[in-house]
């Protein structure tokens, strides 16, 4: 960032009007316990559980799995859709099928619910497609009229904030508009503006004008409180977009209480959000980060090496794996993407990587597999998705080839971690233990998985500082051996 003076100061901006009220989350929880209302989160990659703990995620949206997921007293259930890695047609089909199954199951169980479409805090993903499909299918199958959809990309654990309708990323002590970061140049989901009202207009190709969005400002939240936000929500009709500004969990907790009040009044909402609002609106309290012993298997696999697999190509990820390799003795295996994409050399390259990984892990050597760092992309969005899918499926083959259970498993990148979970580890039903560090969730695999009762560290591609992977690795090694 050569011209930092153009950006807001992260500390000064967030200190302004900062508030907190620990009782709000308890009030939300009490309300949900009374009403039994549930939030079903359709997560377009597996990183969306990065703010919550002691809840479940399912990767199969058949009716039996949805029923299992909704059968306890918890107020939130995640369904991993992985739609960010799919084209528009497949994304639409998945969302329609899930809504149909949700409607049938909740009708049978007598459950009132709202659907959250959880996506990226850097504004990438299938918007407005997924919201429009959810609205249409709910109207068709359940005669539900959606009043509005709340757009809430704030994700505080990774320093993402919305102020005066501009969505910012905290970087090097500055608040940088998200359109000025590498994420806005995404080959599939790129965009030009960080002003959410104008972003809506851009993403809808002008069919939804920027001035048509309802705004919940920080002034509304701080000065008007629950009643003012509730008043704005009551004015929503015909699935109007509702932009939520937020700098802290206090802001989201006020909005959450107003949303619950509006739902009680008969309003129906959808949500297009990042991860932080789920923690708020489900009334989930804070808990400490997980200890090393909580993210390492407590069985015979302790004698095996740990495994880190990296597919994400963001600059942030590249810096993180370089820091890990420079700091700590870990076996390093680079998967050559050019060879993987070539049908004539793919099998040979995969065989090489799989054999090395198995040898290392069975010999108690911690191992890092990462894709070659030269980004291969083309102009066509569909072809870029196919490239990502081919690379990710190759990483899945590495996981599936494992003959021994690693003492810990970490996957870096949204598409990578999703495919590793569903296709590599065969996870259908997992418990979210908590976070290894801010924004990095840990799943505990179910009995159906390739390696059951195994902590699985899901590391988003766009999260963390330069030393974040190394920090988790160091925490594990210190706790396991007392030293690195």
UniProtKB/TrEMBL annotation:
Homology family: Belongs to the four-carbon acid sugar kinase family.
Domain Four-carbon acid sugar kinase N-terminal residues, every copy: 40-280
Organism in which the protein naturally occurs: Peribacillus castrilensis
Gene3D superfamilies: Four-carbon acid sugar kinase, nucleotide binding domain, Putative sugar-binding, N-terminal domain
Keywords: ATP-binding, Carbohydrate metabolism, Kinase, Nucleotide-binding, Transferase
Domain Four-carbon acid sugar kinase nucleotide binding residues, every copy: 308-468
Membrane-spanning ranges: none
Single GO MF descriptor: kinase activity
Cross-referenced InterPro entries: 4-carb_acid_sugar_kinase_N, 4-carb_acid_sugar_kinase_N_sf, NBD_C, NBD_C_sf
Keyword Kinase annotated: yes
Name of the molecule in the record: Four-carbon acid sugar kinase family protein
